[in-house]
Each structure stands twice: as structure tokens, then as C-alpha cells.
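Lab manual, section 2.4: Encoding a predicted structure.

Procedure: take the sequence of the chain (132 residues), apply the prediction step described in section 2.3, and record the output as C-alpha cells. A sample record is shown.
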Amino acid sequence: MSTLITIVGTVGAVVMLYGYAMVSAGRMSGDGTAFQVLNLAGAVTLMVNSGYHSAWPSAVLNMVWSGIGVFTLGRLVSRRAAARRAAAGPGPADGAAQETAQDTPGDTPGDTVRDTPGDTAREYGREPAPVG
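Recorded output:
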């Protein structure tokens, strides 16, 4: 078992060093998902190795490092999901039918109105076209 734990710890150290080298060389973003995953994987494996060998200061350090990695990855995933939702635009509210924008006869070309009464362009984050 000791040999397996040593191999796990060594792989973790190599993974962390690889991530650090890539960021330092400008080949990977320090605030990107790939770097954060490498850091988390390395910290977890080094935490296991350090705990097994009763190197408690190192184990605690890597436990905190892992916690930071989990928090940061969660924040990155959340931001990415929010950006995807924003790029997709507004969806139907409460399961309502999808609304469509239409040009109305006699209106300015490109000036659209909602086909559902009471909805305005302002509600969807778009200002209506100026009149006149």
C-alpha cells in the first residue's frame, strides 16, 4: 500500500508542477478551468500521500488547497452557465409558450412588437426603436 500511496503522491506533484509550468510559460490561463482541475487533482493526491505518511502540516495545506480548488471550479462553472443562459436569451416564463417578435403592418421596418399583450421590449432588456 505504501508504494501505491507514494506513486499517487508523485503523480500529484508532477500534475501540479505541470500546471504551474504551463501558466508560467503562458501556455495556460491561471484562471482557467484546466489549471484549476490540475491544481485540485494534485492537491487531493498530495493530501492523501501526506496524510498517509503523517505529514500533517502538508496534509492540512493540501486540504485547504483542495477547498480553494473546489470553490474556484464551482465559481467558474457557475459563471459559464450564467454566460450560456445570457447568450441564449430570455426563455419562456413559467413554462409559457415561446413568444415571437413580429413586424406589424405600417410600423417602422425592424421595429418589432410582442404578440402577447402586456409584454414590452423593455421587459426583455431591449429598448424600443425611436419613433419619428
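Check your result against the sample. Strands lie at 101-103, 112-114.
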